[in-house]
Amino acid sequence: MIYHCNACKFNFSRYGEVTACPDCGSQNIRYASAAERTEFLMYQDMIDQELAQQERMRPGSSGAA
Ligand SMILES: [Zn+2]
Question: Least enclosed by CB within 10 Å: which of 5, 9, 37, 60?
Answer without folding.
Answer: 60
